[in-house]
Amino acid sequence: MKQRGFRYCSTCQTKLQKWSKTAAGTPRWRCPKYAKTQTRKRTDLTKGLLLEQFVNWLLGKQSQEELTGSANAARSWRNQVAWCWDIIPKPELTGEIYPIILIDGLRVGSLVNLIARRLRM
Ligand SMILES: [Zn+2]
User: Fold this and answer.
1) How far, in Å, is the centroid of ligand 1 from the Cα of 14?
2) Computed from CA positions of residues 105, 52, 56, 120, in that sequence, does the dihedral angle turn out positive or negative?
3) Confidence of residue 58 (pLDDT cuts 50, 70, 90)
4) Alpha carbon of 48 to ligand 1 centroid (Å)
């Protein structure tokens, strides 16, 4: 069974041994069964950081060019975070009940974004 904190071979699922580092400093892992080494990129970390950056940009005041430093970098950043637009946010159920709520609609392309707010009393 897989344990947290260990790396496993993508081919045979054997526990990998840490095997020095590459010239770039990325840890190298060795499969003891096939004596092959491999390096892995933590795509989950990269994706997490990109999502955080995307949300900060989306809710912030910085332009993409200010965020990345140049128009070219902004273009590649847009490609890197394109998948973020496909995430459907799941609002948390709070269980709060109000006697009156105001609902407003905002047309975005072919979709409508509904904004609800409660009255302050
Ligand atoms: Zn293996």
Assistant:
1) 6
2) positive
3) very high
4) 28
Which pair of structure tokens corresponds to residue 80? 């890197």
Centre of ligand 1 to C-alpha 38, Å, is 10
Residue type at 97? I
| 27-31/36-39 β-pairing | antiparallel
pLDDT of the residue at 37: 83
Confidence at residue 11, expressed as pLDDT on a 0 to 100 scale: 82
Structure pTM? 0.49
Task: Provide the 8-state DSSP code for 86.
Answer: G
Taking Cα atoms as reference points, which of 26, 1, 25, 28 lies closest to residue 16? 28
The residue with tokens 């092959």 is 36
Q: Distance, CA 82 to ligand 1 centroid (Å)? A: 34
Residues 84 and 53 in one domain: yes
Instruction: State whether 54 and 113 are in the same domain.
Output: yes
One domain, residues 28 and 86: no
* Domain with 30 in it: 1-40
